[in-house]
Amino acid sequence: MPSVQPSLTTIGFDADDTLWQNEQFFRQTERHFTSLLAEHAEGHDIEARLLEAERRNLALYGFGIKGFTLSMIETALEISGGKVPPKVIREILDAGRDMLSHPVETLPHVRETLEELAGAYRLVLITKGDLFDQERKLAQSGLGELFDAVEIVSDKNPATYHRVFNRHGDGPGRSMMVGNSLKSDVVPAIEAGSWGVYVPHDLTWVLEHAEEPTAAPRFCRLQHLGELGELIERLGRG
Fold it and tell me: Which pTM does this prediction carry?
């Protein structure tokens, strides 16, 4: 067990692609989607139009599979000039349902790291996306009992971390956020005054890309989640 650092009391964890696989299922479904519309456009054009629809619809549908499914349907109608066959719409809906029922695949080092830190720190799951889907994945993961609190939010920005870490901890200054998204998990947490720990995943949605804040004193990058305990111990010694 890493030694407890007096100034750090609360650790927030992202869920998708930090604790369990997520983006790979979006990529698989996107490939299937482009194959369904192959007679109407080239694959790269379909992908670009879908991304444009997702970006446009975030403010309406939020993050998650349901918004992604609606964006696929909208893109199919646009690309086909409204002539997409009903069977294609049905296949898109089936693909969305399949994503919503896919078994949860936890990532390496997750359970042992959470078990190592639980009890010594307040652990808070901070994730965005569809409420029902995120609750389903947390329940299936078997990790829920290791968290002191769960926050499913519509977006992640500095105000989010101020609110969550004040509610469940001792404020952002004594908190740390761990995740695979620089844009959502790391940069806004640092801007709120917390440590931001970046744990890259092989696949990251393009709308979550951002520059690494390497000059920020509270920025840290790990190769995998199993290194988190050692990092906290180093911070305690420093």
Answer: 0.90
